[in-house]
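Hi support team,

I submitted a single chain yesterday and got back a structure, but I'm not sure I'm reading the token output correctly. Could someone confirm the output below corresponds to the sequence I sent? I've pasted both exactly as they appear in my results page.

Thanks,
R.
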Amino acid sequence: MGELARVQAVIVGGGQAGLATAHGLAARGVSYTVLEADRRIGDQWRRRWDSLRLFTPARYDGLPGLKFPAPAASFPGKDEMADYLDVYARDGALRVRTGVRALTLARRGDSYMLETTSGMIAADHVVVATGYQRPKVPAFAAGINPAITQLSAGEYRNPSQLTGEVLVVGAGTSGVEIAIEAAQAGHRTVLAGRGTGAVPSITYAFNGKFFWFYANRIASVRTPMGRRMKPLVLAHGAPLIRLKMGDAIAAGVERAPRIVGIDDGNPVFDGGRRARPDTIVWCTGFARDYSWIRMAVVGADGFPRHTDGVAEGEPGLYFVGLPFQTRLASGLIGGVGEDAALVATVIANRLRQSIGGPGWTRTIDQPIMSRPL
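Hi R., thanks for writing in. Yes, this is the structure output for that exact sequence:
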């Protein structure tokens, strides 16, 4: 097989979670490589809908070592976020290989073998910082009348894609935002699905400081409240942040029960009433595909089994960027840095222990050079 690239750590995914982890590893002297499937850092944000803005103000949107370059109280747009990630990687001299997709990951002895679109990599530690997400649309959607336009939240860009009456399925933050935009564009809009609840408005007082404390220290796996909240967030989505369901109602959006099936090509609400939309936007979340990982790491809920991002039963495998990984803020831009630091610390400590064993003289800030397989 010729030369086999070897590194101490590989990070799969060059979004905010992967870049924050790279920053943490670099600060601890660990040799790493970040693999990003897109050709340009931030493209996963550039593909989002045009009006998308972050849930949290810029003062809470920075990654470790670099504040977000926007007024502290503003809510940055998706292109601003994309450009910020690009600058973060460039100015931090982070080792990112763009245009490289991970295909399979398997264990071989004490190492992990990562097959990529540009060759094989062997690593002592692997951080999965992407869920390889795909839209989660119910199977019965295939039987919906083909005259009805169907879009996922990942395909939606702006109201020019919408025609006639619009049915938005999924009442989380994305669904509420898109439903409001559709209604404001003049479409009769119905928002179907169970609400996810909302973060109380009072928590945004004091320039959002109370909310940030709540999202980091109260809604945490370290507290009884957070442990009760986590399975609800994983199953039904995070509570509305910055928005309230009342904002949708005020915009003229009609609320409806969840969609449970189809009848003669039309969606059916829970309770039996049929919908007759011209356009459906599925805001029902994204499925996480870990089938490329050739190890049993996923639990019954579809999420990796882990503690603070450290995979159970796999001493060199980690996850960063999972929803509610350690707390509600794990799913927010400014919260991922703490999770990344936890994982980077574990990796550095484990490398010190292995390198400090008998016969080792290399320090962890000396990269392992490429060598034949």
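A quick pointer for reading it: Confidence is low (pLDDT under 50) at residues 357-373. Let us know if anything else looks off.

Best,
Support desk
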